[in-house]
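forwarding from the other thread:

> can someone predict this with AN7?

sure thing
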Amino acid sequence: MSNPRLFKEEVKLRCIHCGYTMDADPWTFTCPRCGSLLEVEMPTNIKFSWDVARKRRFGVWRYRELLPIGDNIEPVTMHEGGTPLLRLRSVENGNAYLKFEGTNPTGSFKDRGMSFGVTIAKHLGVRGVIVASTGNTAASAAAYSARAGLECIVVLPKGKVAKGKLAQALLHGAHVTEIEGVFDQALERVFVEAVLRGHKDLYPLNSYNPWRLEGQKTLAFEIVDEIGVSPDVVIVPVGNAGNISAIWKGFKEMYTYGLVKRLPRMIGVQAEGAAPLVKTWQAKSSELIAVENPSTVASAIRIGKPVNWLKAMKAVEDSKGVFIAVSDKEILEAMRYLAINEGIGVEPASAASLAGYWKALEEGIVSRDELSVLIATGHALKDPDTIINRFS
Ligand code: AN7
């Protein structure tokens, strides 16, 4: 039998800056014309029905027709996604739901994109995958590449990764390289090793890889699958800004296909000490205002130069949303609040979505009766040190 098609027919890559469009290619990460980021353009005519989809398990692969992957490609999966959407009963009569991504196989939303990305890597026949990470991407890449029988190389900022995440990367047998500096330097290193050198033996799975984000857009599909409509507001903690871009893409595609009648406002939340997108947004700047030495208790989003900044700016602008900064104190209060009042244990970065929701209510950006979905990106056990140091 001939090799199955990796991508569906008519899937394209499109530059988010100049609009240049090219054929689908797993190894092109920047626009050949202007160097900006690419996004996956789905075919206009797909066959999707909720009834057919709902015969499959709730999760990433339920929505196969809405993903660019070829019909006969076998996924590398651990039943990621299908996470609970929990009503926050105690939040001041608000109409807020929390999508608890901590229940994914490795404890964060990264598993959605990693299942998708490692499926591509396996099909390409590479030796392994490589990622820079603040922790969760490393944990997820390590587990999914182990499942696929691939090597995994992770580049981490030394001494700055929460223990649970480092432990997972080691447990699953990843080769760990630690570098001086923050995530942004680790990412530059991976880009040089995996992309600029052009060896094509290690598949890079950071979020400049537009294919990985296709797995993450299923967060939007699941929300609509469960509540039947688009919420009014979706609130997302933002680091490298891949997730907010992916979720918005998911909603937009459902709108294009007539699966929803309206779109939510996207609210991106950053920590005050690592808020390049809030600064760029407030200054209405057409260039990223980077943060040189990002600092926050929420180590997952301690990122000063988000690679997907332009995608995220567009998502927030097009959706009539906003970027909000919250302090470490507010993040820790929200984390403790969820744990004590709702029984939900999340890591600090994830609690930024509740802290952002509170701020948005206070500032009149969101009203209490609006249906708001808060993305809680990772599990509390990821970062036990913060819990023991701050709450005991
Ligand atoms: C719990 O693992 O960047 O805005 O290298 O782990 O898509 O980057 C993690 C990011 C939010 C931000 N919440 O998502 C990594 C990494 C948690 C996270 C984010 C991350 P993006």
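The mean pLDDT is 96. thats all i got for now
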